[in-house]
Specification:
The complex is a heterotrimer.
Chain A (H helix, E strand, L loop, with lengths): L9 H9 L2 H23 L4 H17 L1 H15 L2 E5 L2 H14 L4 E4 L3 H5 L2 H7 L3 E4 L2 H8 L16 H12 L8 H18 L2 E4 L3 E3 L4 E6 L3 H7 L3 E7 L3 E2 L2 H16 L6 E5 L10 E7 L3 H5 L15 H5 L1 H6 L10 H11 L17 H5 L6 H14 L5 H14 L2 H14 L10 H8 L10 H9 L1
Parallel strand pairs in A: 1-10, 2-3, 2-4, 4-7, 5-8, 7-10
Antiparallel strand pairs in A: 5-6, 6-9
Helix pairs in contact in A: 2-12, 3-12, 9-10, 16-18
Chain B lengths: L1 E4 L3 H6 L1 H13 L3 E3 L9 H5 L3 H14 L5 E3 L2 H10 L9 H8 L1 E3 H8 L12 E4 L3 H6 L16 H7 L5 E3 L14 H4 L1 H17 L4 E4 L2 H14 L5 E3 H5 L3
Helix pairs in contact in B: 7-9, 11-12
Chain C lengths: L2 H6 L23 H10 L3 E2 L6 H10 L4 E4 L1 H10 L5 E2 L11 E7 L2 E3 L5 E4 L7 H5 L2 E6 L4 E2 L2 H7 L6 E5 L4 E2 L7 E2 L6 E6 L1
Parallel strand pairs in C: 1-12, 2-3, 2-4, 4-7, 5-8, 7-12
Antiparallel strand pairs in C: 5-6, 6-9, 10-11
The chains are: A alpha/beta, B alpha/beta, C alpha/beta.
Amino acid sequence: MSSPPRIPAFHRDAGRFLADDARVGWHDQALWHLRAKRDKAAAATPDWEALRDHAAALKAHVLDQLPELWTRFSANARAAGWTVHFAADAAEMRATVHGLLTAAGVRRVVKSKSMLSEECGLNPHLEAHGFEVVDTDLGERIVQLRHEPPSHIVVPAIHLKRAEVGELFHRELGTPAGLDDPTALAHAARADLRRRFLAAEAGITGVNIAVAETGAMVVCTNEGNADLGTALPPLHIAVVGAEKVVPTLDDAGVLLRLLARSATGQPITSYTTHLAGPDPRRPGHACHLVVVDNGRSRLAADEHHRRALSCIRCGACLNTCPVYRRASGHAYGTVIPGPIGAVLAPAMIGTAAARALPFASSLCGSCTQVCPVRIDLHDQLLAWRRQLADEGLVPLSKRLAMRAGAWFLAHPRLFAAGGWLGRRLGFLARLPIPGPHRLWLRHRGMPDLPADSFRAQWKNRHG
Amino acid sequence: MDVALFVPCYVDQLYPRAGLAAAEVLEGCGCRVSFDARQTCCGQPMANCGCASDAARLARRHLDLFRGKVTVSPSGSCVGMVRGHYQELGLILDDEDRRTIANTFELCEFLVLKMGVERVAARFPHKVSVQRSCHGLRELGLGTPSERTDGRGPSPAERLLAGVDGLTLLVPERADECCGFGGTFAVTEDEVSARMGRDRCAAHAATGAEFITGSDWSCGMHLDGIRRKQGAGPPFIHVAEILASR
Amino acid sequence: MDEAAFLARFRRDGAPAPHPGRFAGHAWEASWEGFARVLAGVGGSLADAAQEPRAAVQAAIDLAGGRVVAAPAAGERLAAAGVSGWEPAGNGAPGRFADVQLGILWAELAVAENAALLFTAESLPERSLAFLAERLLVLVPAGALVGGMAEGVARAPRHGHHHTWMSGPSKTADIEQTLVIGAHGAKALVVVRW
């Protein structure tokens, strides 16, 4: 059912976004605003760097203990009344959820944000089978109505301006033409979604943290949509990635202190809900939890890249990334964009399909510095570049250029002579001869070329 | 102290004044400076493209040439390559190699942190906006990246610049955002790179600075290229050139 | 997929990285001033301690302009204090609170670090009231404030079908990063020390 993964054409799609100068400036500023709020929240947390160290160590422990932790989790979760399912891949996850909805005779489903369901193509699958699936996070709802994927994992519609949302809501929700006030638009969506929450027969949510000690899942939102989606319908299906378990509630507390601060600069999300199975007061209330692998075990076995599974999906690396802010999330062509997306993609969709993404970075290292669980993101990108080169997935022209360059640079006399000639013939670069220098000079003027190199001048002075 | 000067390949060929200035500043601080003309490139362009074996070839040459020496370079990025990435290239490194790696320093880092220099006798009566280049800042840990809450104070370069006679040190908005150079990124993702560069140039210009400075001519090459294309804005000058100004 | 087969995919040889233990971080001060400051920052407000709590709640009920429903733990206190104008949550379908103007809840704990209020299966057996009500009034015992979230989590229940931390009213910034209060749940949240 799922469409094959699109090979990310980062360069083309980033170029498309960059063509609109004003929008890029605005997008960059909106995301920088989140980064600035994150900085403020981090600075107001005296134990911030120690907290990051602790979370990194906790996640390293978790990644080594996944079978043990899930065994403990599922025993406690079953005792609390959850039905726990395990899905090897996206297809099995879709089939499991589909089966549960069918068995319960459900047609109307409300969903809160889950990057895992995006990853597994859950919405298109259910819609194709006649279910009404309504995304209830405002940003998710906006992109759902536009029939496009989210461009950010925390603020899914950050690429859109209020006027575009206004037009969309005018068309889809009947708001007055020209209405573009965010409060009025958000409240119009609230009224429409409130109706759907009350009529829904099932709620699907993602999971931020699964707690082995209690058998509870934690879901964090600012809107309260996951709470309405689980408190009203009689059936709750939670989908969780296999990396999301922690040993204890105290461990969950460590991640909760980092998550919202890193994401939006809030000290905690408005709602942080621990759900441990059905409400005993609600007859017929049923709760299912689907634990999903879908490539995670493969990544967990990859010594070079397994740390990427520590990610808690805060989005801080997207917000700080100067490339993401200017290219937008859609340019990455993957469910998760930005630095963490570029690190995960080669493992999740394959190196061939994702080969452009590790190169979509200036390697400035800001992502590594903001990551609350200290994933060495920019070094991970570099490690993927090496692996891509080993697998022959770096363009031949680039590999040949590097091979030739290394040979040339290993011969200092040749290098010196080449430089001498180059400085004298540099003016030729202005001629319309194709080559990488054209791409340089498209955006940048020629430097003033000195007559003599450093080495020549040094020799003149020192003999 | 005897110091081996490591002049990055592109500085050697395109920005020789930065190399000469670096030597001059070092000598002014009492160092005996040597330059081995067999040196070329540290291998960073190859490493950044993932071409580890090509990079390793140049890294091996580099380590052999500078073996047993105290090496100083007017580039945080190339020093970052040596100190932070040589162990990723599949090279067999012996103890002497590791010592050579550990004894490779960025110019201002060496002056301030190794030699204890607080001030150099320089005069540069201008307003200067500083580009906190990523590799020196975030890889070598020179200065405090804006993402961090555990302050390590200003970078050695800024500490020296602050002592330059007549100089007004300015910091652009978004104190340490990347300029967008990124090696081959500058041509393979030219649109993003150029936009980053234009934004950074605008931020520097908005400080009212007459010059942009920094420890890496690679960032400078990109920012100065953008300036030339736009026909306005402060030109780039390497921090070594300021420190060598009288 | 069978659980054992699923888990086998993640099995690793060798000693696991050790668990880092409990995090001994910053000792946050358990101050209501700090709580109030953070709460204001997330869109909520703390009723003035100078005002008598019973009167504050009665005034809020009188101004509610519609249905006022109290969760059981809050209802007990209101009844004991002789506060009028509210109805108990009672029993029935979770959607029956859809037209509630003011929900009155009882929180067991408040955290100064992040203005989070703790609700459990005991204080809030039925979650829907907390999310359907237009506005929320939260009663919290004046002695139930802790400094840091780590301390709060240590006191959270390990049993019961849910527990929920709530920090301010419902909000979103999904349209152009503009903050909008009341995305789905409460459009306002006032905390009263009881």
